[in-house]
Amino acid sequence: MCNFSQHHWFIRKVLSWRAAAAVAWSVLLLPLCTLLFIFLCRFDLFHPVQWISDSLNDWCSSYVMFSLLLLCIAVLMISASDMYCCAVVPSVSCTRVALMARVLHVCHFVYVAVGFIVACCTALIIGDRYRFITASCITKESPATSHQICLNEYFIFILLAGGFTGFYYSICYFAKNMSCLPFPAIQQYKYLRFKAALPLLIKHSAAQSFHSVKYFYMIYFFLGYIPRAWFSTIMDLSEDRFRQPLNTLKGLMDISLLYHTWLSGTFLLIIWYIEWLLFRIYATEDYYFPVQSSFAEDVDRCLPKVLNSNPPLIVKFLALQDLALLARHSPSRRQEVFSLSQPGGHPHNWLAISTECLNLLSSLTQKLVAYQEAIAVNGRIRHSYSSSGESRSSSSSSGTSITEEPAGQQVVTQLQKTTPQTPIPSLVKTLPFKMAAPFTPDLGSPFSSPPMNTMVGVVDPSSPWYGSVQSPHVMRRGPKLWTSGSSPYTEPAQNNSPYEAVPPVIFRGRFEERKPNFVSIWFQQKQEQVKHFLGRRALIMYLFDKHPEASSQALFADSQAHIWALEGLSHLVAASLSEDRFGVVQMKLPSILNALLALQEAVDKHFKLPHVSSKPVRPSESLTDMSFKTLRFALRSSLRTAIYRITTAFGEHLNSVQISAEHQKRLQQFLEYKE
C-alpha cells in the first residue's frame, strides 16, 4: 500500500499534494457531470428548446446545489479509500480461496455507504416520483386529493440500486487489481492521458452499470419485499396497496424506472472512475530525483540515496523510473553518475546505483532458481513415492514379504536410486549471494503432499521415521543419503558453493534424548486426519488447488522494477564507452555481465517449465490494467534487449572480460546475434 501516514519526505511533500490535486480536479468536474446527467434525465427529442431550458433551470435549483455538496463529500470518501488501498505491486492470488479472501475487504462498507449517498443525490436530481421517501397514497374515492402519506418504493429502489452498484464496484476493484498503480510505458502530459482514457471510461461505466442493474433486478425480484417491509416498519409508513409493487414482473417492466436506474448507476461510476483515473495519472507521473546535491539537507533526496535506502515502494518505483529515463535521455545527468567525489575521487554515485540494480537482478534470479529447484525436487519425490508404492504392491500380491529393511527405508533407498546425479547449474555457481530455502508452492497449502513435507524435515507421526527407530539398518544407512559424496544435495556444501542445498530429512532416532510430548503427537495426528478427510472432498480441493499460471505471475509481480533496473543499467554501460572519462563502469562490468547472463539462463529455464505459458495473451481493450499478467514476457524482452545493447556497444572487447566459460559461450551467441 502507498501508506500516506508514513513520514517519508516524498509522501509529505510530493505524493500528498499530487493526491490533493487529483481530488480538486474531481470536485471541479462534478458540476459538468451533473449537468450532463440532468440533460439525459430530461431528454425530450420532440421539445428540444423546453428540454434545454428545463435542464438549465433544474441545474440551478436548490436541490441540485445540495446534491453537489453531498457529491463532494462522496468524492472525498472515495479518494481516501483509494489512497488507503493503493499499491504498486499487484496482488496475485494463486488459489480461489486467496482470491475470495482478497475480495473480502473492509473497504466494501465504504463503497456501499458512498453508493447510498450518491443514490440519494441522483433521486433528488431526477425529481418527480423519486425525490422523497414518502408519497401521497392512492385511494379509490379521490386519488388526486388524498392527504394520506405512504412509503415511496421508487425512492427505496433507487437507493438500494446505488448501494448495490457500490458493492459491485468494490468487488471489481479488488478482484481486478484496480488498486494497483500502473506506470505508463510512454511518458505523456497528464491532460493527454486523461483525454485518451475518457471515452473508454464512459463506455466501461455504462457497461458495468448495465451488469450491476441486471443482477440487482434479479435480487430485488426475489428479496424486494424485505427492505420494503423494513423501511415501512422503521418509518412507520403504510404501503400503498393500490400501487403495483416493484418486486413483481409488471413492476420491474417499467421502462422509465429501468432507464433512470441504469443512468444513476452510470453517473455514480463515472464520477468514481474519474477520481480513480486522475489519482493514477498524478501518482505515477515521473519525478526528477537529483543525482547529487551541494547542500547537505538535500542529500536524502538524491537518486543514489533514495535507491539504497528503504523508502515506500511507490518512491522506489519512481526512483527506478527516473533512473531509466536519465540513462536513456539525459547525457548531462549521466555525467553526474560517472563523476568522482571531491575530495577522494571515489565513484560513489555509480557504485550506489549499480549495486542496487545488481541486488534487484540477483534477488529475481534467486527466486527463479529456488522455484525451479522446488518444482524439480517435488516432482522427483512424487515419482519415487509412486514407483516405490507400485513395487510394494507387486511384492505383496506375489506373496513375498520384504524383511530386509523397513518400508520407510525402502522409500529413502528408492529416492536415492531415482534421483538423477546432475551437476549444479552454472548460474547457481556464479551468484554473488547466498540462496535461501527454495520456494515450494505446495507447502503453503493445507493439503501439502507428505513427500514434500518429508523433504523439508516435517515428519509424519504415523510414519516409521517418527520417534525412536531401533533398526541398525536405519542408523547405518540413514546418513548415507545426505553425507555421501555422490549425492547431488551435498555437492554445494563440499565445493563451498553459495547455493544452499535442500534441507535434509530430520530423523528422530536414538541420538535425541527428549521424547515428544503426548499432547503434541495427538494434536498432529488429529490435524493430519482432518487434512486427509478434507483433501478427499472435491469442493475443498477445488478451492485450495493452486493455479500454476498464477504462481508464475506471482513470481514476476514486481518485475516492473527489474525492467527499469535493466534499462537503466544497460543504457549507462553502453553510454560509458564514450562518456565515462574515468573508467568507473569497467570495474563493475564483469559483475554486470554475470548478473545479466545468470538471469537470462534462469528466465529461459522458467519458460521451459511444463506449466508455464510461453506466449503472452493479447490484452483486450479495457479501462482496468491487466499488464501484470504479461510482465514476465516484458521482462524477458527487456533482458534480451539489455544484453544486446551492451554487446552492440562494446563488440569484441567483451571477449577480454573475465567471466565464466559457460557465460562466455552464451555471451558469444549475443555477439553473433544468434540468441
Key terms for this structure?
mainly alpha; 675 residues; globular
Structure report:
This protein has 675 residues and is mostly helical. Among the domains are: 15-283, no CATH class; 356-544, no CATH class. It has helices at residues 9-28, 30-41, 48-59, 62-85, 96-103, 107-126, 153-175, 190-223, 225-234, 249-252, 255-283, 303-308, 313-329, 331-338, 348-397, 407-418, 426-429, 450-455, 472-477, 480-483, 491-494, 518-535, 538-544, 548-555, 559-579, 589-607, 631-650, 661-671; strands at 134-136, 149-151. It has a two-stranded antiparallel ribbon.
SSE layout:
Blueprint: H1 9-28, H2 30-41, H3 48-59, H4 62-85, H5 96-103, H6 107-126, E1 134-136, E2 149-151, H7 153-175, H8 190-223, H9 225-234, H10 249-252, H11 255-283, H12 303-308, H13 313-329, H14 331-338, H15 348-397, H16 407-418, H17 426-429, H18 450-455, H19 472-477, H20 480-483, H21 491-494, H22 518-535, H23 538-544, H24 548-555, H25 559-579, H26 589-607, H27 631-650, H28 661-671
Antiparallel strand pairs: 1-2
Order of helical and strand elements: HHHHHHEEHHHHHHHHHHHHHHHHHHHHHH
Name the helicity range: 55-70%
Largest sheet: 2 strands, antiparallel
- What would you report as the Rg, rounded to the nearest angstrom? 33 Å
Q: Any idea what the shape is?
A: globular
Distance between the first and last residues' Cα = 39 Å
Global mean pLDDT: 80
Strand content: under 5%
Number of helices: 28
Q: Which strands sit side by side, in order, in the main sheet?
A: 1-2
Give the class from helix and strand content and strand pairing: mainly alpha
Number of strands: 2
Query: Which parts are unreliable, with pLDDT below 50 for 5 consecutive residues or more?
Result: 388-513
